[in-house]
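User: Fold this; tokens only.

Assistant: Input:
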Amino acid sequence: MRTNAIQTDSAAQPSFVRAGLGLERLRGVYDRIAAQYDFEHALITARADQRGRRLLVENAVREGDTVLDCGSGTGTTALMAARKVGPKGKVTLFDLSEGMLAVAQEKAARQGLTDRLTFQSGDMVHLPFADDRFDVVLSTYSLCPLYDPKMGALELYRVTKPGGRIGVAHSTTPRNPIVRWLADKVEDVAWRFPWLSMGCRAVNVLPALQDAGARLVFQKHIGVPLWPFLVFVVEKPGSATRIGKLSA
């Protein structure tokens, strides 16, 4: 029987997941808000989004890694990862929205990190990468709006090397039942305006990764009461060399 180093906190996991926006509609939303995404997302989350990004990079990325930032958006997480992997590492930014990737390219050029990065667009549920390709795969807030979050998470797992790590931050439901009720009401209103909700809703993908064989090595709840996030890192079983590198 497989066990995990850390017990999953399922107290606030959503029992109902709102249907996501269609692929083309979601692309249109993010192309539209690309220029102001960083400001809006930081404002709505009281900058908890940045904390989640830092936690994942700190706990999953090492010097020299090949990293996939899946649903990279404007590249904030990828740029953190690029600084950490150093000149011997590489980071691939993958996103549905060409508009978001264009902003990411501009930010990378300003920070002098373009030589460590590659950019590619597409659908997270059908990644165009071979199995066991990356040392680390990251998803910061990109599974929340996905039309099939579970399949998206399993794609992250597929392209991670044995012994590698998957770092995820996503929206979850508030633990307090009264706050949860209020959050549902707020979400009902926000979802009438996709440019405001950004198609995001609480999801629950950790069980799918664990069922696939992943071992939970880090987990933390962060965020504001109405918009909490679950941040976690799991390890794909495999190479003892890789596991030793990550724990060094």
